[in-house]
Amino acid sequence: MKKELQVSYFTDKLRPYRIVIFVSICYSFAVLDGLTTEFMGVVGLQVNKNHNHAELAYWIGKPFWGKGYCTEAAQCVLQFAFRELQLNRVWAAAMSRNPASSSVMRKIGMRHEGTFHQHVVKWGQYEDLEYYGILASEYKE
Question: Which residues make beta-bridge pairs with 44?
Fold first, then answer.
């Protein structure tokens, strides 16, 4: 196959998939102390509208670890995902060496779906990721 035909062939085959890349919506919510409004972290949803699911992600500042703030915020966002956005599925991932993050996922009703070994590189080292998920039909408020 000539080079021009190869490029044209792949361009034509990939054109329909370009749409998939752009049908994603990100919701980011600041986690604030209810009394002082001090910023504690962020919880977010990366929604894939084509497949009606979202990735849940969160970050909480170290001074606020172990106090339940992340679990509470993640639960609120999960409720938003299923009740307001009417999503079918929410999933999340945590590094294997971060059991506290996996604990948050279990506390909000997610179940472990598998481990991706050496899936990401952080600080020059390969890390395993633990994947969790929950379906709308499994969600209990």
Answer: 28, 57
Q: What class is the 25-138 domain?
A: alpha beta
Instruction: Indicate left, alpha or beta for 26 from its phi (over 0: left) and psi (-120 to 50: alpha).
Output: beta
Q: Cα–Cα distance between 65 and 68 in angstroms, integer? A: 8
CB atoms under 10 Å from CB of 77, counted, come to: 21
Token pair of 55, please? 């990735």
Place of tokens 């009417």: 86
pTM beyond 0.90, yes or no: no
- The torsion angle over the Cα atoms of residues 127, 81, 38 and 98, rounded to 10 degrees, is -20
Q: DSSP strand E in the chain: where? A: 24-32, 39-48, 53-60, 89-95, 111-122, 125-135
Report domain extents, the chain: 25-138
State the residue for tokens 């969600």. Answer: 139
* CA 132 and chain centroid, separation: 9
Task: Give per-residue pLDDT as tens, 46-102.
Answer: 999 889 999 999 999 999 999 999 999 999 999 999 999 999 999 999 999 999 999
Q: Which residue has the tokens 């001090």?
A: 38
